[in-house]
What does this fold into?
Amino acid sequence: MALRGDSLKYRGARKKLLETVRKNLDELGITDEGVLEAMMKIPRHVFFDSTFDFKFAYNDTAFKIGAGQTISQPTTVAVQTALLQIKKRDKVLEIGTGSGYQAAVLMEMGAKVYSIERQKLLYDRAQKNLPDLGYRPRLFYGDGFKGLPSFAPFDKVIVTCGAPFIPEALIEQLKPGGIAVIPVGEGATQVMHRLLKKENGELHKQEYGDFSFVPMLKDRAK
Ligand code: SAH
It folds into this structure.
């Protein structure tokens, strides 16, 4: 799946990138072979805005994708996905569809993905690109702070923008036993939080260091 526009050159670059990503996951003690395999299968360059930018696709850096937003750094995608402990058929809510790359990684691992984006341009693009690549998530143009109450509950929730606080609606929409991975903080960096919702509804919180995200903003962009 998802090989349109791929080549030996890009696969070689991807293999090297994933060695770096693996090292970073090892350091955090969260290496997940399934995540690395999924990322090896997906050509990241096709999620870029312009063919002129393809040469940057296999650097371990975030990159602009239009509407002032970025595709997350590969290590960040791998860390968030590994922390979610994805199992086949998990129902996952993503906040911040952006390029659709993170959604593709989740789907490659067998998850059913529901993803919300507040920028119409990016929503429209993902709505076209992901099915072209063979991925069929449910995409929504809306405000991620509200989640998707009519599709809840979810096994997993992933926020791919910097949240000023832990949005209550997202925790409400998480199943007991479910996991939410949310970068929290309003400054230049956010602290990665992994929240496990216990059967009694209590949250067990763990922190996984500093990351840098575009901000989570209220309402749909005009
Ligand atoms: N997961 C994306 C990362 C994109 S960056 C990828 O793989 O490319 C984060 C995205 O979150 C941006 O596109 C931004 O517009 C979006 N965003 C910010 N606040 C949001 C909100 N309240 N609801 C939905 N999307 C939001």
